[in-house]
Amino acid sequence: MAESLAVNVGIILLATVGIYIGSGWLEQSSDTLSSYYGLPLVVQGAIVAAVGSSFPELASVVFSALSGSFGLGVGAIVGSAIFNILVIPALSGIVTHDDIESSRTLVYKEAQFYSWKLSIDNIPGVGGAR
Predict the structure, then answer these.
(1) Which of 80, 54, 78 has the alpha carbon at shortest distance from 129?
(2) What's the pLDDT at 14?
(3) What is the Cα–Cα distance from 20 to 24, expressed in whole angstroms?
(4) d(CA 16, CA 102)
C-alpha cells in the first residue's frame, strides 16, 4: 500500500511540474503569436483562458474514453458547465463589494459558447460520444 501511495504521489508531483512548465510555454507561445499577428491582449487572454480552462475537461474525456468509461467524461464536461454557470457568478457576487452588471447580450454570448462546446463534445470521436 505504501509503495503504491509513493508512486501515486510521485506521479502527481511530476504532473504538477509538467503543467507548470507547459503553462510557461503556452504563455510564451501566445505572446509570440499574438505579437506576430497583431492580436489585442484581450483576444490573447481569451484564447489562453479558453485553452487553460478547457484542457482539464479534454483530458478527462480522453482518459475516460481510453478506459472505456464514457459517462465519466460527459459528467466532467456537464459538471464543469454547471459549475461555471451557477457557482462562479454567485461567488463573484458574494466576494465583490461593487455592483455586478449583466445584460441580455452577456447571457446570449455565454449560451452560444456552451451550446458550441456541447455540440463539439458530442461529435463522435472528438468529445467521447459514440
Answers:
(1) 78
(2) 93
(3) 7
(4) 36
Angle between helices 70-82 and 104-121 (to 10 degrees): 170
Residue 79 and residue 73: Cα distance in Å, rounded?
10
Q: How would you label 25-42 residue by residue, b for 16+ Cβ within 10 Å and e otherwise?
A: ebeeebeeebeeeeeeee
Q: Please state the pTM of the whole predicted model.
A: 0.46
Q: pLDDT by residue (tens digit) across 73-106? A: 777 777 777 787 788 778 888 888 888 777 888 7
Entry field: residues in the chain: 130
Is residue 26 within 8 Å of 52, Cβ to Cβ? yes
Cell 503556452 belongs to residue? 26
Say if residues 51 and 32 touch (Cβ distance below 8 Å).
no
In the beta sheet, which residues pair with residue 56?
A: none
In whole angstroms, give the CA distance from residue 50 to residue 22: 15
Q: Which three cell numbers stand for residue 33?
A: 503569436
Burial class (CB in 10 A: 0-12, 13-18, 19+), 121: buried
Q: Write out the three cell numbers for 50.
A: 479558453
Distance CA 11, CA 19 (A): 12
